[in-house]
């Protein structure tokens, strides 16, 4: 038995003219984008950089997909919107599992190069912030952090000014004939979404009449999956930070674990959770 498999005649081997894998993906740029700052260079800093760079690449795709979901919902195209949400859910699972790689960085190892990070922090991830805005957790105060980054500021200003995924879904429901309160449909979309008790009966009707509302019933569950995955990601982030630095302050000035723990109380789609208490309760 040969130790090598033969190359097939049809395999392209000349890339003086043909487009190569590396050129298409700009691999030279990507693979040379890691620049450790520790002196002397610490072995584990490459892990730390790659963990965050790959996360940012996935976040870029989440932003891309959520924008498409918004557009599909605005055009009453629920099926492709659900496809987009399904893709985001798979990306979320990948992002959550990535924390297990960073968790191999021990406290003593991280302490050897953490000081070189200066004030850089994941809190400054404008793509993460854009995702929160796209899902309805909008906070105009965050814009100031990116005053010196025009591209990031433009992305966040656009996400702040446009209806969130949830806003678009509620408008879609209204066009379908569901009794979404008018004041919710006319709300200022630049403000963070807040719980609306009058919306709960709308979802209760959908859930208790699932057979007649199957597609929107499915969409509701997809949104719940999305939020649950987001919370799982936040929790793994919290536990990885706690495991690595304990209760030290964050490099960006936050309280660290306590600050991350507070984010676990945030919710994007509050009525989709509140309705669960009401389902099956006689009216």
TrEMBL record:
Biological pathway: Amino-acid degradation; L-tryptophan degradation via kynurenine pathway; L-kynurenine from L-tryptophan: step 1/2
GO BP annotations listed: L-tryptophan catabolic process to acetyl-CoA; L-tryptophan catabolic process to kynurenine
The protein's enzyme class: oxidoreductase
GO MF assignments: heme binding; L-tryptophan 2,3-dioxygenase activity; metal ion binding
Necessary cofactors: heme
Pfam families recorded: Trp_dioxygenase (PF03301)
Catalysed reactions listed for this entry: L-tryptophan + O2 = N-formyl-L-kynurenine
Cofactor annotation remark: Binds 1 heme group per subunit.
Summary of the function given for this chain in its UniProt record: Heme-dependent dioxygenase that catalyzes the oxidative cleavage of the L-tryptophan (L-Trp) pyrrole ring and converts L-tryptophan to N-formyl-L-kynurenine. Catalyzes the oxidative cleavage of the indole moiety.
Protein's name in the database: Tryptophan 2,3-dioxygenase
């Amino acid at each position: 038995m040969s130790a090598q498999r033969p190359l097939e005649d049809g395999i392209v081997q000349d890339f003086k003219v043909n487009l190569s894998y590396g050129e298409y993906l700009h691999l030279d740029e990507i693979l040379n984008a890691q620049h450790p700052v520790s002196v002397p260079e610490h072995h584990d800093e490459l892990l730390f950089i790659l963990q965050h760079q790959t996360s940012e690449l996935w976040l870029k795709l989440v932003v891309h997909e959520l924008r498409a979901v918004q557009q599909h919902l605005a055009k009453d195209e629920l099926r492709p919107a659900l496809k987009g949400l399904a893709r985001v859910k798979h990306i979320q699972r990948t992002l959550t599992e990535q924390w297990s790689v960073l968790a191999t960085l021990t406290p003593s190892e991280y302490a050897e190069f953490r000081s070189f990070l200066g004030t850089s922090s994941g809190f400054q991830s404008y793509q993460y912030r854009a995702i929160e805005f796209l899902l309805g957790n909008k906070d105009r105060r965050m814009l100031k952090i990116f005053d010196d980054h025009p591209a990031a500021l433009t992305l966040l200003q656009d996400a702040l000014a446009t209806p969130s995924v949830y806003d678009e879904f509620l408008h879609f429901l209204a066009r379908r004939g569901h009794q979404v309160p008018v004041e919710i449909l006319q709300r200022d979309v630049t403000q963070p979404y807040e719980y609306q008790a009058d919306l709960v009966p709308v979802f209760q009707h959908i859930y208790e009449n699932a057979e007649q509302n199957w597609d929107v019933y499915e969409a509701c569950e997809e949104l719940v999956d999305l939020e649950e995955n987001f919370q799982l990601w936040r929790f793994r982030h919290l536990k990885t930070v706690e495991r690595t630095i304990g209760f030290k302050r964050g490099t960006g000035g936050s309280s660290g674990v306590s600050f991350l723990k507070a984010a676990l109380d945030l919710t994007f789609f509050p009525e989709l959770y509140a309705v669960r208490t009401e389902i099956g309760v006689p009216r």
